# Entry
Amino acid sequence: MGVPFSFPTAPGEPGATGPTGPAGPAGNPYESVTTNDAASAGQVARRVTGGNVELADGGSVGSGDATVGLYGAAVAGGGTAQIYRSGSRCPVAGLPVGVLWRSNTGGAVLYASLVSGEYTNKLGYSDGAGVDVNVGAEEMVP
# Structure
């Protein structure tokens, strides 16, 4: 007699869901890009002309424009940097716990460390073992 409360699938309607497919290929959670400046792990990067990055220092208006993420490892100027962008987890341990902001030296710091009147970007949340990166627009510290 059939199963109670079941309806046949009409042509063109989706049928039953199949099994989950295999995992996709492993990839890097970071972007590999040439940096114009030397930087330490956990410092802040911004995009510059030509597609490279540089240390996102400075506190004047516009200094946070094109901020893209965090350096994942120390790198020399002209080297290939690992940049962790929004939506990724940067595995840099030892940064302060809490919401991090871009300082005028290009570091990732807590809001209380910022200078009033300068410009900054919200960077994401650190649990001390890594940072969930979520770069925000530039804003002035009141």
